[in-house]
Amino acid sequence: MGSGNTNSKITPYVLACWILAAFGGLMFGYDIGISGGVSGMDDFLIKFFPLVHERKMHVQENNYCKYDDQLLQLFTSSLYLAALISSFFASKACTILGRKPTILMASAFFIAGAIFSALAEHKWMLILGRILFGIGVGFGNEAVPVFLTEIAPAHLRGAVNIMFQLFVTIGILIANLVNYATASIHPNGWRVSLGLAAVPAIVLFIGSLVITETPASLVERGKQDEGKRALLKIRGVANVDEEFSEIVYASEQAKLVKHPMKKLMKKESFPPLLIAVCLQVFQQFTGINAIMFYAPVLFQTLGFKNDASLLSAVITGLVNVASTFVSIFLVDKVGRRKLLLQACVQMLISQVAIGAILKVHLTATSSDLSTPLGAVVVVLVCTFVMSFAWSWGPMGWLIPSETFPMETRTAGFAFAVSSNMFMTFVIAQAFLSMLCFMQAYIFFFFSAWIVVMGLFVIFLLPETKGVPIDLMTERVWKHHPIWKKFFDGDDNRTIA
Fold first, then answer.
1. CA separation for the pair 367, 63 (Å, rounded)
2. How many Å apart are CA 491 and CA 477, to the nearest integer?
3. Any idea where the domains of the chain sit in the sequence?
4. What's the number of CA atoms in the CB half-sphere (13 Å) around residue 437?
5. What is the 3-state secondary structure (H, E, C) of the chain?
6. Which residue, 16, 66, 138, 326, is the most exposed by fewest CB within 10 angstroms?
7. CB within 8 A of 375, min separation 6: which ones?
8. What is the pLDDT of residues 198-215, one digit of tens each?
9. How far is CA 252 from CA 221, 256, 408, in A?
10. Cα angle: 481, vertex 388, 173; to 5 degrees
């Protein structure tokens, strides 16, 4: 095995590949942001959820329960059930067809979802559109992070992979801006919001025709000459022999594994699999998607008027985007663990403070939340979003994409994606009901999870900064004080 060092330079072509592929993240982020704003639009509620609208307009209604409706929550959450199931099909597509065709399929499904959603006249059309969106998200979230990880040089892998999360945050911001603009377009502003989801999907569709396939995928499918040419193209230098030899070696070992899913069940696959799944669970139990999905709804619950709540969501979206750049600049310098631990402290303080303010000033039937105090809540939400954006957001996608060996990479990442989608579904489906039942205590609920997450990072998460992905087992897992015993006396490349 070589040293793991790679020769490379950033060429305009490889930069274009990174950006175009990352539009898969923008597609995902736009949907996260758009659904919460649409759910709070009166025209949308009158057409599809009239009982929710009537409850919303009832001045004596419980402040925490205005939007507690299972079908309304299903509008948001159905996407993630579809994404959960489709991620396993996407894993097969990634392995058999390659990363590039899988990205193309993701964009095609998303375009279809945008068309169905914008033209919806009945609830079943609305839900079908969400399911098509979900299949697109499942395929995109499986293929794009793996694609970015495989074409990035080791010393820039963190920053390149985080472009996916950066574009997720940009998508959320754009969605919030669109919702703010379309809220005044009656009665079809919600159609414009949902239909514009096709725009990033079209860019991704065109981009999937321009980007190269990853060298690892080409070699994995027996196309060594094409793989060598692709590596030369993305590295921009003439000498890539050492890196290519490592890719070929990893591919040869991967071919010994006939059943990747079975291999994932073996002892030596347990550490990366557990880390991948737990990161997805923890990412959702920070409470971030509860805030991002329902930011306009949440701010209306806190007493903001409709326009003010949408504007507050735009502010949090701007913070989200700006803070993700912090992660891009720091992840390959300070490492993954330090960013995660720092964020746990900041998120914990923010959540506890929000919970305390609401417990004192917002009861079920009355509110003495003054304008200055409301502004404090927005600031606290921003500090929470800020810390998530440079830590658990991008790391949840980066770490699972870089810690599996080639033979289980797409299968293992499929578990990560499906876990993320399942937990996202749970939060999206349950949050408004949890808010109604738990009221301000919901923020203390998420705070308790943040403490658990911090302990998990301290004791179980290894540092993966700067380690080539095909040397991860030798350099990381076999040296971790807890995980190394899973490899004692075993060859992690054994046939399965």
1. 8
2. 12
3. 12-486
4. 7
5. CCCCCCCCCCCHHHHHHHHHHHHHHHHHHHHHHHHHHHHCCHHHHHHHCHHHHHHHHCCCCCCCCCCCCHHHHHHHHHHHHHHHHHHHHHHHHHHHCCHHHHHHHHHHHHHHHHHHHHCCCCHHHHHHHHHHHHHHHHHHHHHHHHHHHHHCCHHHHHHHHHHHHHHHHHHHHHHHHHHHHHCCCCCCHHHHHHHCCHHHHHHHHHHHHHCCCCHHHHHHCCCHHHHHHHHHHHHCCCCCHHHHHHHHHHHHHHHCCCCHHHHHCCHHHHHHHHHHHHHHHHHHHCCHHHHHHHHHHHHHHCCCCHHHHHHHHHHHHHHHHHHHHHHHHHHHHHCHHHHHHHHHHHHHHHHHHHHHHHHHHECCCCECCCHHHHHHHHHHHHHHHHHHHCCHHHHHHHHHHHHCCHHHHHHHHHHHHHHHHHHHHHHHHHHHHHHHHHCCHHHHHHHHHHHHHHHHHHHHCCCCCCCCHHHHHHHCHHHCCCHHHHCCCCCCCCCC
6. 16
7. none
8. 999 999 999 999 999 999
9. 11, 7, 13
10. 145
pLDDT band, residue 282 (cuts 50/70/90): very high
How do residues 137-154 score in pLDDT, each as one tens digit? 999 999 999 999 899 887
Tell me the CATH number of domain 12-486, given options 3.40.50.720, 1.10.300.10, 3.90.190.20, 1.20.1250.20. Answer: 1.20.1250.20
Residues 242, 227: Cα–Cα separation, whole Å? 14
The residue assigned the tokens 């790391």 is 395
| Residues composing the chain | 496
Exposure string for 148-157, b = 16+ CB within 10 A, e = fewer: bbbbbbbebb
Residue pair 270/409 in contact (Cβ under 8 Å)? The answer is: no
The pTM (predicted TM-score) of the whole model is: 0.79
Q: What is the pLDDT of residue 401?
A: 86
**Residue 491 pLDDT greater than 60, yes or no:** no
Q: Give CA separation, 336 vs 108, 235, 241, 417, in Å.
A: 34, 25, 29, 19
